[in-house]
Amino acid sequence: MIADKDLHGKHQILLIQKNENNIKDLILNIFIGIHNFEKKKRQRVKFNIEILTNPYVTPNNKDLNSILNYEEIVSKIEKIAYLKHHELLEDLAENIFNMIFRNKLVKKINLKIEKLDILKKTKSVGIEVSKSKV
Question: Tell me, what CATH number does 77's domain have?
Fold first, then answer.
């Protein structure tokens, strides 16, 4: 919320709406990576996704197209992740972006994907990418 003064010196309030949907710490055991050892053994990969939807669409429990279905998103991410060996996290991210953006409500996605066990001296390594519909 932002307060501002109009031409007459009176305060007016501008409302900034934001619908944010989060999927946190989804961990899947998948084939990913360019190294030969990564092609032979699954790795634990963590997904954190923030999805911003159209704030002007009012959620309606009688019309599920008015909301983002978390269960459906997670299920589709699993399907994409398990479908094939992904050489790069970036490749996997692009496939996830394409799937989520099919939903007309979605305006912006922040996606973080981390390999949890690849480097012993780190907790994780990964990428963080944001994309918006134009």
Answer: 3.30.1130.10
Q: Write the pLDDT tens digit of every residue in 63-115.
A: 878 889 999 999 999 999 999 999 999 999 999 999 999 999 999 999 999 99
Helix axes 89-100 and 70-83, enclosed angle (nearest 10): 140
Place of tokens 């790069």: 88
Q: What range does the domain containing 127 cover?
A: 19-132
pTM score, two decimals? 0.84
Q: Strands 106-115, 43-53: parallel, antiparallel or unpaired by DSSP?
A: antiparallel
Question: What's phi and psi for 72, nearest 5 deg?
Answer: -65, -45
Distance CA 89, CA 46 (A): 11
